[in-house]
């Protein structure tokens, strides 16, 4: 049931998919040794080719700066020698992970003697559509190859020079270590039509992972005819309970909102329990740090008037700002906070700051998000922080993978059944 | 991002979904004790109300028999006291399973002291569209409630009287044991428009499981805007190797093809290694048992001419007969058999009959299906046989669940993160 091409771009895309399929078939036959060698070769090549990578990156940075890209986005786009070394470090972490393929998840011998084993196997051909952070290219390739998958990459157009060079460097490196170059396939040259063609690549692609904002996720979930796991949309809430420690609350809120604003695990809405003792200090600290509060009336009474304190509207509850803005709403009860979260959350990460074990337990039980955090920053929802080495994305879907997707999330299983002439009575 | 209704049927369906959502929220708060009590109450109610269930079933059987339904399909439709007792037995097996909810899948304390636990939680609201076997209704409700989910049921129209009574009996039973009646919601009265409305019920339904033939699966995968796991399409292959034991091969092939023909794990194509010693006896036994062989030229030479041996066409390789027909193709190598399977299989179950450990290993490694069987009947790919108590369906998809779907496959996970003022450096 392979989709048939109807446009030249589909013809080209499906041909690349079939080459990736061949590479995936051969990858599925490799041992950990071969796949780990490919990761090591990738790391060595990134160091050896750092100059040419940085040169290409400088072109992207120059073009986008001239085109008026904001400073934080340019910073995300920029590679440096230090950042390349950090990429190599995370390659090493992924390489050192246990082999995710060939693990026996369940197994038993049935009363009739039939032997059952459920073993992990690669998913096959994975496609990722992601934003303009070139380091993501390396992370995704590392996770895909470690788990025995071929991968198709469509990066942000702002990073096109960098990604073109990176993909070429990685293809050469894996080929030299005995893995097909076509296990790593770039799609940037196919443009937006290439993304559209991916949506219809049924049978050619086993999993499409869009990593990005609401508009990309909406398009993919509406239009894709291939299996999809949506990642990266984070309308993240923090609840400030009565009795919460003031110093901790201030520190966690500043970290969650301001440490890095353009990321999916940054806080976007603060829900303040009416009467929470730490609220005034927390709101003041946020304003002092440069955060603009979109606050309801009761919250505005807790903080000195300022151009950085504005009235909240309904739209604020729905907004993933990805900048130095924060919605603030006052609630009368934890139940009301949970109801707000159920209505507006994207299911990524929510946190509570509380000194009550009972409220912490209630919150973790009732809030239905990929990560539910007590007394810590929401910024921890991250494959690297969780010890996965890196992440393909952070799933906000419920099927197959939820939260940071590492190598285990890029496998599926099959049942191996072995008998000796067994028939069903 | 709840889909908004645009037709009266959608308005009614989405309203039922929201009632099911409320029931699911409350179910997620229940302990195993409550959910097990609901399963026990279901079993008792099925026994107590057997007469009224059988009466409704007699109406379905009578109407469909008059309408010309084939004898095997009428047999699938028919309930008897014995079949009701068997249903209650499988309810008991499901009830005795370990609680699939609240299990810690992974967990660790990070070097910084942050505590991580990945725990299983119910999926939420599940919808099933299935064929005219009323026992499936009971199996699905049992698995859904055991795993803390609410369930929407759309059965085959041929079983409508039976399903209406069954669902009413089950709703009453669970309500008396403290679970919301709306954890079990019938959709048969909404007709085909109700199925179409389900496809668009984004946000209202967490998982749609179509269980049935190629046409249903094709429609769902083309049209559904809700997460889907396709189940039940089984173009099942058996490879007969050289050196395979003749008596075993005959017995397994007869079992896989003829024991029950209308099921997804029955064999549909036999791939004979050229020169396989057991082939003549196996083909003869199949013909003698009433099987019509659609055989290629070399295979036809192995068996006496008969009206039950006809030439195979390309179409035969693609056909899931679900009757007493079997495609037979001769291959020169195991590689050729695997290539045929890759091209034509639906990814359900494939088996090899062999005396070679090397070929058995190669087959299990290279064939990429939900179940890969050595020297046993393909009929074992079944939730009951695998010890899952029952099954919601047999997934031929790769994401989330593959093969028989029991209670574990109806859960997802969330990460619980607990700190003491942790912030990200």
TrEMBL record, chains A, B:
Subcellular location per the Swiss-Prot or TrEMBL entry: Cytoplasm
Domain of life, per lineage: Bacteria
GO molecular function: glutamate-5-semialdehyde dehydrogenase activity; NADP binding
Catalytic activity of the protein: L-glutamate 5-semialdehyde + phosphate + NADP(+) = L-glutamyl 5-phosphate + NADPH + H(+)
Transmembrane segments: none
Signal peptide interval: none
GO annotation, cellular component aspect: cytoplasm
EC number: 1.2.1.41
Pathway: Amino-acid biosynthesis; L-proline biosynthesis; L-glutamate 5-semialdehyde from L-glutamate: step 2/2
Principal cellular location given in the protein's record: cytoplasm
Keyword Oxidoreductase: yes
Record flagged with keyword NADP: yes
One of the protein's GO biological processes: L-proline biosynthetic process
Function: Catalyzes the NADPH-dependent reduction of L-glutamate 5-phosphate into L-glutamate 5-semialdehyde and phosphate. The product spontaneously undergoes cyclization to form 1-pyrroline-5-carboxylate.
Similarity comment: Belongs to the gamma-glutamyl phosphate reductase family.
The protein's name in its UniProt record: Gamma-glutamyl phosphate reductase
Provenance organism: Falsarthrobacter nasiphocae
């Amino acid at each position: 049931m392979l989709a048939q091409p109807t446009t030249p771009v589909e013809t080209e895309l499906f041909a690349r998919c079939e080459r990736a399929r061949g590479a995936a078939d051969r990858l599925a036959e490799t041992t950990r040794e071969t796949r780990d060698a490919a990761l090591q070769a990738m790391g060595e090549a990134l160091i050896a080719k750092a100059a040419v990578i940085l040169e290409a990156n400088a072109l992207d940075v120059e073009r986008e700066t001239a085109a008026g890209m904001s400073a934080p986005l340019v910073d995300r786009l920029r590679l440096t020698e230090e950042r390349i070394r950090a990429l190599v470090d995370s390659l090493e972490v992924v390489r050192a992970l246990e082999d995710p393929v060939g693990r026996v998840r369940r197994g038993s011998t049935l009363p009739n003697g039939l032997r059952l084993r459920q073993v992990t196997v690669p998913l096959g051909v994975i496609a990722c559509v992601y934003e303009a952070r070139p380091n993501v290219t390396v992370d995704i390739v590392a996770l895909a190859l470690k788990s025995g998958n071929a991968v198709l990459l469509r990066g942000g157009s702002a990073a096109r020079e960098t990604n073109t060079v990176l993909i070429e460097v990685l293809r050469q490196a894996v080929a030299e270590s005995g893995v097909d170059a076509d296990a790593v396939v770039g799609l940037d040259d196919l443009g937006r039509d290439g993304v559209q063609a991916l949506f219809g690549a049924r049978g050619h692609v086993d999993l499409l992972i869009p990593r990005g904002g609401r508009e990309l996720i909406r398009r993919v979930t509406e239009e894709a005819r291939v299996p999809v796991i949506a990642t990266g949309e984070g309308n993240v809430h923090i609840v400030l309970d009565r009795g919460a420690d003031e110093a901790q609350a201030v520190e966690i809120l500043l970290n969650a909102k301001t440490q890095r604003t353009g990321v999916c695990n940054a806080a976007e809405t603060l829900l303040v329990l009416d009467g929470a003792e730490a609220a005034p200090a927390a709101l003041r600290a946020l304003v002092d740090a440069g955060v603009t509060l979109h606050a309801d009336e009761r919250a505005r009474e807790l903080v000195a008037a300022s151009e950085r304190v504005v009235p909240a509207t309904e739209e604020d509850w729905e907004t993933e700002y990805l900048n130095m803005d924060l919605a603030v709403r006052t609630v009368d009860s934890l139940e009301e906070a949970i109801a707000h979260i159920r209505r507006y959350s994207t299911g990524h990460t929510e946190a509570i700051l509380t000194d009550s074990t009972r409220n912490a337990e209630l919150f973790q039980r009732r809030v239905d998000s990929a990560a539910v955090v007590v007394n810590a920053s929401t910024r921890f929802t991250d494959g690297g922080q969780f010890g996965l080495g890196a992440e393909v994305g952070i799933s906000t879907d419920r099927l197959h993978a939820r939260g940071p997707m590492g190598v285990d999330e890029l496998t599926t299983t099959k049942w191996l059944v072995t008998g000796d002439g067994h028939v069903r009575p």
